[in-house]
Amino acid sequence: MKINIIGSGWLAQPLAQTLQADGHDLMLTTTQQDKVAELQNKGLKAIQYELGDQLSEPGMLFDADVLIIACTCKDTTAYDVMLDQLSEQNCKHILYISSTSVYQENQQHHNENSQALNQDSPIWQIEQLMQTHASASIIRFAGLVGPNRHPGNFFAEGKTLDQANAPVNLIHLDDCIGIIKAVIANQAWQQTFNGCADTHPSKADFYQYAAELIGRKPPATTASQTTNFKTVDNQKVKDQLAYEFKHPDVMRMTF
After folding, report:
1. SS3 labels along 125-190
2. Which of 132, 138, 211, 213, by CA, is between 20 and 30 Å from 249?
């Protein structure tokens, strides 16, 4: 398939390399002109593009079997502009990489049917825009960990960990890529999926484990009452996509 990815960061690059190795025709975007050559030197096709740009040849980006949006832009106006251009092209499917931050921290367990959503969040508003396309799916990823994103480094020396008893919601890069591939392979469009590991240990336990892996002192914790938290359910990707997590237990993850 022809798969184009808006973005070229921590998730987008290894995703592109994996999909290209699977035989798909891939192209990435970057907001930086000098990064185009860097990506090309890695064997990846790339163009300079920033959400909201008016492309002289929009078909180059938007005429695709799958358009994956894997960037950090939260400018809803820019997404409106993109969708206007895209509407005149042959873009069969959109896959928007969202975040479990759309769920409220209301001490509840959230699956994809949860109505406790942060509707003021630009990410949630972008999700609504994406769903105006005839065939768009959304993946809400939990906290991202993996190569070059080691959780043992998340807390600088001397930084205090608040609400240490709150549960963590995390997902490894390997599973991010695996779930994206599963959505495409299963043609699971017009759907929303959560991407999160099975287990939800406390922040105190997890970040102590992560710090010890790299020989660092774990962050200090406060005695503050744990009130703002949630857990994220991942059963839908297992049931509907038959996806088997590579890193289901966060206390056994390697980075």
Report:
1. HHHHHHCCCCCEEEEEECEEEECCECHHHCCCCCCEECCCCCECCEEEHHHHHHHHHHHHHCCCCC
2. 138
